[in-house]
Amino acid sequence: MSKSADVFIVAVCLFIFLFVPVGAQANSKPYVWRGVQAHHSTPDDVKKVLGEPTQEYREQLLYEKQVFDPADPNGKHIRLSTVVLNIGVKGVIESVFISPEWGTTDKDFRPFFGKGRRMSYRKFLATMGEVKVGAGTRPNEKLHYVSLDSPCEQFDQSRVFFIYQRQDVVSGNFLVQFIVFY
């Protein structure tokens, strides 16, 4: 498995507990990515759309080398390094974690999402009720950390959250580290 896949899977557990209590946002309409919708789609639904996963765990499906939207009206396919789908105890997808190919910026995703609320990762965690240090484990016990000062953007209306690596000083665009559908 690639290093980016290792890092991405590790990050999944960091965030999985964050998005379980989402009942307060019941009026929002979750984003449907390639026919997959958090809290609705099953692993079988995902496999019908995306095919067999690169790796499969009891709680996760891992896909590599996907594109964000193969029917992109702009003809610009955003390539993804990894996609991890977390399976909840009820057997449906709880969340989708996307790691785009390095160099992908927020500008690439604006046609899909528009503009959200910018904040630090620390502030986002505070909106979830409790600030935690960003660490998680995965099946092979590697750790991954996200800085609490990382810039983020939340799209409440579609239940999507971006975590950025940093802002490019020349263009002003943010490099996307993760996109989370919850």
Summarize the structure.
The chain is α+β, with helices and mostly antiparallel strands. The protein contains four helices and twelve strands.
Could you please describe the fold and organization of this structure?
- With 182 residues, this protein is an alpha+beta fold.
- It has one domain.
- 20% of the residues lie in helices and 33% in strands.
- The chain contains 4 helices and 12 strands.
- It has helices at 3-16, 43-50, 106-113, 121-127; strands at 32-33, 36-37, 55-56, 60-67, 79-87, 93-100, 117-120, 135-136, 144-145, 151-155, 160-167, 174-181.
- The chain has an 8-stranded antiparallel beta sheet, with helices on both faces. The protein has a two-stranded antiparallel ribbon with strand order 1-2.
- The longest helix is centred in the first third of the chain and has 14 residues, at 3-16.
- The two termini are 25 Å apart.
- Mean pLDDT is 78; it is low at 4-26 and 131-143.
Write a concise keyword list for the protein shown above.
alpha+beta; 4 helices; 182 residues; globular; single chain; 12 strands; two-stranded antiparallel sheet
